[in-house]
Write a structure and sequence with these properties.
Blueprint: H1 3-27, H2 33-57, H3 68-138, H4 142-166, E1 173-174, H5 175-189, E2 197-203, E3 208-209, H6 211-232, E4 239-247, E5 251-258, H7 273-284, E6 288-292, E7 297-304, E8 313-314
Parallel strand pairs: 2-4, 6-8
Antiparallel strand pairs: 1-3, 4-5, 5-7, 6-7
């Protein structure tokens, strides 16, 4: 037998075997039908060329010679399509694997975030409980009052932390929910001593802040309302504390006012402790403070929606 004819016969067997294996793999769902079909088409043109060359070099017939050029073109075309479809399939598989990996990482990070949240919340509750026990052991007096103020600060941080964690959007937090939680915590803490003091609030529910500014603003309100509850009115005196949250074109404004006896004198021992903390927190959130104590006390925290603003403290 002519060596060329023998080689084409071997090629025919190899092409046919490859087609058989591909079809069986498709039937068993071992490979995707898309790329496999074009591979089968490409191999089929190879079978045709092998048969044509075998017949020609064996001297049997040359009727298929006229179609060999077309068959070669088909072979190249199907091969290129196969390579393209196969590369697309590999890219899709890689993308799906990447998506699964990202989802697994997100689930892991969500779990870790949940654990961190619970640990932080539990630790804050433990610290609050310890302060409560220490305060009870002190009875009454300045130390007991200081411990209660510290406990209220811890509770406010814990509740603000809880609100931020439970928020659907961690980048923009509804400020009204945070401030409302602070007010509720303080009215509960001082309900026995300030039963005749009413805390009224009016808040724009559309105001949202990022957590880095929302939490300090909640702590600022905690200090301002605590000062009013403790110092604005004499024991047993009726009064009202007004909390207002609003916004204009460029600023968010938090106002806390009362009609009490005003700020302590400059000679008082505890003057400025709460306000120094307020100033520090306001500076942290790039805002400014305005204080008016001509008739009672009115404090306005002006926080820019965007940009940076320096701290300005006004005292008449």
């Amino acid at each position: 037998m002519n060596p060329v004819a023998l080689m084409n016969a071997i090629a025919f067997v190899l092409y046919s075997s490859s087609i058989f294996l591909l079809l069986r793999s498709i039937r068993r769902h071992l490979i995707l039908p898309g790329p496999a079909i074009f591979a089968v088409a490409s191999l089929s043109t190879g079978v045709f060329l092998s048969i044509s060359n075998f017949l020609e070099h064996s001297g049997i017939s040359d009727l298929l010679d006229d179609y060999e050029g077309f068959a070669r073109d088909l072979f190249v075309m199907f091969l290129l399509i196969f390579l393209y479809v196969d590369s697309m399939h590999r890219e899709q598989v890689k993308r799906e694997d990447d998506q699964k990996r990202i989802q697994n990482e997100l689930r892991e990070k969500a779990f870790l975030l949940t654990e961190i949240h619970h640990r932080v919340n539990n630790n804050l509750q433990i610290v609050s409980g310890l302060l409560s026990l220490q305060r009870e052991s002190q009875g009454t007096g300045k130390i007991s009052d200081a411990l209660r103020i510290a406990q209220n600060r811890i509770l406010s941080i814990a509740k603000i932390h809880q609100i931020i964690y439970d928020s659907q959007n961690l980048l923009q937090i509804g400020v009204d929910s945070i401030l409302g939680s602070v007010i509720q915590n303080l009215t509960t803490a001082y309900q026995n001593e300030s039963t005749r003091i009413l805390v009224k609030s009016e808040m724009d529910k559309n105001i949202k802040l990022d957590p880095e500014r929302a939490m300090p603003l909640g702590l600022i309100l905690n200090e301002l309302v605590t000062n009013s509850l403790k110092h604005a009115y004499c024991d047993g005196e009726a009064g009202e504390i007004s909390v207002r949250l609003e916004q204009d074109a460029g600023n968010i404004i938090l106002s806390v006012s009362d009609s009490g006896k005003g700020l302590p004198s400059a000679e008082a021992e505890d003057t400025g402790i709460g306000m120094k903390l307020v100033e520090s927190l306001v500076q942290q959130i790039r805002g400014r403070v305005k204080v008016d104590s001509k008739e009672g006390t009115s404090i306005r925290i002006i926080l820019p929606k965007e940009g940076v603003s320096s701290l300005i403290f006004f005292r008449p």
